[in-house]
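Expect chain and fold; thus:
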Amino acid sequence: MTNRIALTFEDGVTRFIEARAGELVADAAYREGVNIPMDCRDGACGTCKCRCEQGDYTLGSYIEDAMTEDEAAAGYVLTCQMKAQSDCVIRIPASSAACKVKPGALAATMVEARKLSPTTIGFTVALQDKAALSFLPGQYVNVSVPGTTQTRSYSFSSMPKAGAVEFLVRNIPGGLMSSYLAERAGPGDALTITGPIGSFYLREVKRPVLFLAGGTGLAPFLAMLEVLQASGTQQPVHMIYGVTNDADLVEVDKLHAFAKAIPGFTFATVVADAASDHPRKGYVTHHLPDAALHGGDVDIYLCGPPPMVDAVRSYLDTRAISPASFHFEKFSPSEAGK
């Protein structure tokens, strides 16, 4: 029996390893070519101290100089002593380069590109090695643009299904990837995806959750909701999905399906265009119910353009709300392509 361990590095790169039953995490990492910083193997120096964000484990033996009781209670571990008892997510306080890790590049082929609206394109790719791709819900990859030497970064909008994954793209007139998807994409086109990358991913749900999506920033939340549907949750999860124009609202049918399948999941859509007939107009901060903030006892996940991220942070400051955690990802469609 093995446990899958996601090692997330401070530069956003994630590497998955398999830890055997009873195997020290540090040993599993070294066996798979990941050099977690370490000066001793006795739980004495604290050099390999990391934070386990999710999963069950045993701490092993260590001294107070290496890790305090308060740190252990907060989820910190010493990888030279830790043994995983389930799949885990461990944040490594070092860069992937320092640990001799490079993002993996995987060969893939285009399955289909579909126009979801005048402003949004969805596309599906299949991995040649169906078992090779692992990622945390919310992360992204760099996708090569067929016929060029360039890449664009996209968040997964689904979890893998038989080796295939989905993405959402803003249809930017003249955009490199947009033009390819809208005009030339065909089944079987070869491309490469490199990753996974990013510290924006769903943590273990221990309290109420608020999802805030702007435009194609909806993508990572669709993957997160797939995981919540599969695993279940006892906590309320509310989403506010804001767009600029009516045409930007896509995949709402999927959100309705998730609302039926996930107890406690609710969502609202918002359109900024004042000329829209949508029942909720304005920005996400105009439609943030007090109940969804839970007085600050909430984990907030936000993916959207920089002005949206800044507006939400300002709104929380004005309301004197300090969420238990606030995870966000900013993107500019013309640069990041999400």
